[in-house]
Write a structure and sequence with these properties.
With 400 residues, the protein is α/β, with parallel strands linked by helices. The chain is 40% helix and 16% strand. It folds into two domains: 5-180 and 370-392, Rossmann fold (3-Layer(aba) Sandwich), CATH 3.40.50.2000; 196-368, Glycogen Phosphorylase B (Rossmann fold). Helix 8 packs across helix 12 (337-348). The structure holds ligand GMT. Residues 11, 15-18, 20, 63, 124-126, 154, 179, 219, 223, 292, 294-299 line the site of ligand GMT.
Length: 400
């Protein structure tokens, strides 16, 4: 089958949409497609030098929380590369600012008398659940979805919410394409506590005495409620030794550290910052905690499942499509660190059950979220778009 020229726009930072986009870029490049990534920097998870090209553009490095600046620089870069490299389509990850930039890029290409690229957009989460509720931004998100030739969401839950929040026609096709995980990069390990002890050198890590290791990874935005992992840790430590490794960075980093100090658990919390490679840290955790207020999918939870580590998560959004309550993890009400601690303690105190859940977690990740079939589904959508755009021009969607 012929290969495609694909432009991917995403955030370079550690958040799930940038990670998902980077993984897709790498998989597509490995399948021989010509991949061009547009981002404010080299995305953290775009591993090493591969057969892709990164275009560093002056644009938003992370999901915007307020008004979006003019997306002109990104639009110009995408239009230029589309023409120069004969790209077939542009795939936007997260609606703003990428969606409006792509619409503009398509016009710039058309103005040059060249064939405009197909536009594909993945709505990832807060672009709908946050921006979609802001009167000023909702219109832009809606325009981006309606102006695209294909729309994807990572969960069926987000598809429903996007349709309702953006006032889209129920007949508008939105394809559910879940996030995927590389089972080689995230896999179970059985060789002790890996690099975690070095994060807590004062503790006794000898077998039988080691503390339980709780892990959380995110972009530390308020929606992640990272403070609840610290509150849960404090509860767990009333009953047994435990530490918490916090991976990532973002606006809540300072307040979370202050909370750990005020709860008297600062020495039991390690902030490992943003990292390119996470697999070993995940595999050495006993439990992964995801106390989000809202979550369209929960890519970090999936990475934990692939690592054979059960997940204790809020029962919100698309999380139940990823974590099966009682089988691969435990779902608790959001904003309830006490419930999260109780679930964690129950699993930590029943090591046979936790081990069985860990095996089920890995099996579920392998059965449902391997890259192969999911990337093939994306390719299928791309090809449909290219055929449609070549035959009829960019889709003129029903704007009612
Ligand atoms: O919506 C966001 O917060 C941004 C995005 C990100 O960049 O972190 O995360 C979303 O996209 C991920 C990849 O599809 C999903 O795994 C996350 O669940 C989703 N975050 C939320 O819905 C809060």
């Amino acid at each position: 089958m012929s290969t495609l020229g694909v432009g991917i726009a995403c955030f370079p930072t550690v958040g799930g949409s940038g990670v998902a986009a980077s993984q897709l870029a790498m998989q597509l490049a490995a399948r021989g497609h010509r991949v061009h990534v547009f981002s404010a920097g080299v995305p953290v998870r775009l591993a090493g030098d591969g057969p892709w090209t990164v275009h560093e553009v002056d644009t938003s490095p992370r999901p915007p929380s307020g008004a979006v600046g003019r997306p002109m620089a990104l639009a110009r870069a995408m239009a230029q590369v589309t023409v120069r490299e004969s790209l077939d389509l542009l795939h936007m990850h997260y609606a703003l600012p990428h969606g409006p930039a792509a619409l503009l890029a398509r016009e710039l290409v058309r103005d040059q008398g060249r064939r405009p690229p197909g536009l594909v957009i993945t709505l990832h989460g807060t672009d709908v659940t946050g921006l979609g509720h802001d009167a000023a931004m909702r219109g832009q998100v809606r325009e981006a979805a309606l102006g695209s030739d294909a729309v994807m969401t990572p969960s069926a839950w987000l598809r429903r919410v996007a349709t309702a929040t953006l006032g889209l026609s129920p007949s508008l096709q939105i394809s559910v394409v879940p996030n995927f995980v590389d089972p080689e990069a995230f896999h179970p390990l059985d060789d002790g506590a890996g690099e975690v002890p070095a994060l807590f050198p004062a503790l006794d890590w000898s077998p039988g005495r080691r503390p339980a290791v709780l892990l959380h990874a995110s972009n530390f935005r308020p929606v992640k409620r990272v403070g609840d992992t610290v509150r849960a840790l404090a509860e767990v430590r009333r009953r047994r030794p435990a530490v918490l490794v916090l991976v990532g960075d973002g606006p809540e980093r300072g307040p979370v550290e202050a909370l750990a100090t005020s709860l008297g658990v600062r020495d039991a919390v390690a902030f490992s910052g943003e990292r390119r490679s996470l697999g070993d840290l995940f595999a050495h955790a006993d439990l992964f905690l995801l106390p989000s207020e809202q979550e369209s999918f929960g890519l970090a939870a999936l990475e934990s499942l692939a690592s054979g580590v059960p997940v204790v998560a809020s029962e919100v959004g698309g999380v139940p499509e990823v974590v099966t309550h009682g089988k691969t993890g435990w779902l608790v009400p959001p904003r309830d660190p006490g419930a999260m601690a109780a679930a964690a303690l129950a699993l930590l105190e029943d090591s046979a059950r936790r081990a069985a859940m860990g095996r089920a977690a890995r099996a579920s990740a392998l059965a449902r979220f391997q890259p192969g079939p999911i990337v093939s589904r994306v390719e299928e959508i791309y090809r449909e778009v290219v055929v449609r755009v070549t035959r009829h021009g960019p889709e003129d969607r029903d704007r009612t």
